């Protein structure tokens, strides 16, 4: 368990895999007004800060880059609030540097996702105006970018007012996109409905519960999902149009290429097959250092169950320092193959009928599954064998995630 739980685990993404292939990370921008909690979210999830310690963080004065080495290579760019206040989307044909920050030397076309953080307990009307400018400007230069709105510090609101605030923000953002649709036109000058074309998700977040970990997990899933659905449909329509064209006599048109399965769909399929063969009620693939989940089966998401698994992961991580000296012992013996060595496992009983099982998959990932206690106790060997096969599958998908 020492490898997956060590607190000193390196997060630097690999640059070269030995075959002269450079791994291009996903660029994710974290923007929002001052004191919205952008840096606090990053430090709690990716630097293991305690939530109370974020109350004493100094304001971010310049853009900070964080390498989030999860299932994929992700670079988080924490943009200071002052850069957002000076941002303007008036000149769309000659875009300025991204938020006028000198250390972000890439174009809008290289941005994969934008996280906009706003304070749910503060006046957010001016922030929503800036959000509309960011969406319009980014979508002008990169129509495949994903947008995520973190309605942060939601723990300070009552449950009813919390969801009322989310609905109000969603409605105002949608109305702003509808009003901005006149700035765009389709290939044949047809009107564009910006509120339907933009990929936009809303998340209620707080550093004092698991909501921020779930939100960052959803962003990872979106990045692994691939192109937007509307873009995929446009590609399919284009292929159908080509196929429908008349051909010369005696010549057959080539068949349409099959749809490629996204990395997210592959992970879901692997988890579904594992749940079927092992009678798991729910299965998650966790990135243990960040406590985010990179994949799960397609059964309904249960927040209470996720909270239990999250607490179990946190409990296991507390023992990382006890096993840190074993790293030196491992370096003295012959290095074993990473996917044939003996990995850690653990179980905890939630009651007489339910067990949560933990299996280490590699140095970052772990499988957590919910299973009936009698099945777990009587089929331990079969479960371990199936998990070994599952570990090999995840290893192959992990290599595909880092082309």
UniProtKB/TrEMBL annotation:
Residues 1-22 are annotated as: Disordered. Keywords: GTP-binding, Nucleotide-binding. One of its GO terms (molecular function) is GTPase activity. Pfam families: Gtr1_RagA. It comes from the Eukaryota. Gene3D superfamilies: 3.30.450.190, P-loop containing nucleotide triphosphate hydrolases. InterPro entries: Gtr1_RagA, P-loop_NTPase. One of its GO terms (biological process) is positive regulation of TORC1 signaling. One of its GO terms (cellular component) is fungal-type vacuole membrane. GTPase involved in activation of the TORC1 signaling pathway, which promotes growth and represses autophagy in nutrient-rich conditions. Belongs to the GTR/RAG GTP-binding protein family. Component of the GSE complex. This is GTP-binding protein.
């Amino acid at each position: 368990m020492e490898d997956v739980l060590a607190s000193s685990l390196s997060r630097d993404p690999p640059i070269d895999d030995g075959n002269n292939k450079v791994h291009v990370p996903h660029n994710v921008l974290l923007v929002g007004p001052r004191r919205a909690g952008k840096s606090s979210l990053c430090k709690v999830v990716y630097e293991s800060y305690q939530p109370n310690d974020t109350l004493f963080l100094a304001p971010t004065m310049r853009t900070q880059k964080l390498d989030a080495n999860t299932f994929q290579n992700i670079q988080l760019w924490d943009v200071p609030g002052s850069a957002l206040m000076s941002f303007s989307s008036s000149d769309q044909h000659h875009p300025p540097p991204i938020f006028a920050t000198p250390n972000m030397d890439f174009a809008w076309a290289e941005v994969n996702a934008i996280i906009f953080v706003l304070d749910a307990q503060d006046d957010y009307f001016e922030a929503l105006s800036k959000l509309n400018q960011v969406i319009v400007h980014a979508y002008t230069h990169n129509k495949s970018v994903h947008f995520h709105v973190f309605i942060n510090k939601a723990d300070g609101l009552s449950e009813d007012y919390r969801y009322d605030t989310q609905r109000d923000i969603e409605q105002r953002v949608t109305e702003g996109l509808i009003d901005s649709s006149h700035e765009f036109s389709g290939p044949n000058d047809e009107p564009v409905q910006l509120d339907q074309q933009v990929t936009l998700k809303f998340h209620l977040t707080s550093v004092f519960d698991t909501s921020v970990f779930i939100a960052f997990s959803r962003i990872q899933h979106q990045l692994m999902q691939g192109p937007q659905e509307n873009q995929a449909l446009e590609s399919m329509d284009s292929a159908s149009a080509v196929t429908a064209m008349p051909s010369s006599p005696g010549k057959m048109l080539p068949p349409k290429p099959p749809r490629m399965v996204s990395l997210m769909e592959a992970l879901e399929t692997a988890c579904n097959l594992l749940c079927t063969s092992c009678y798991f009620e729910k299965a998650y693939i966790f990135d243990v250092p960040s406590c985010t989940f990179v994949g799960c089966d397609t059964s309904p998401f249960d927040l209470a169950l996720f909270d239990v698994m999250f607490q179990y992961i946190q409990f296991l991580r507390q023992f990382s320092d006890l096993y840190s000296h074993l790293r030196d012992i491992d370096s003295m013996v012959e290095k074993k193959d990473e996917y044939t060595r003996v990995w850690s496992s653990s179980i905890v009983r939630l009651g007489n009928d339910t067990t949560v099982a933990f299996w280490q998959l590699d140095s970052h990932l772990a499988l957590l599954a919910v299973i009936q206690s009698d099945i777990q106790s009587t089929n331990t060997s079969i479960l371990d064998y199936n998990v070994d096969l599952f570990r090999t599958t995840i290893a192959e998908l992990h290599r595909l995630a880092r082309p």
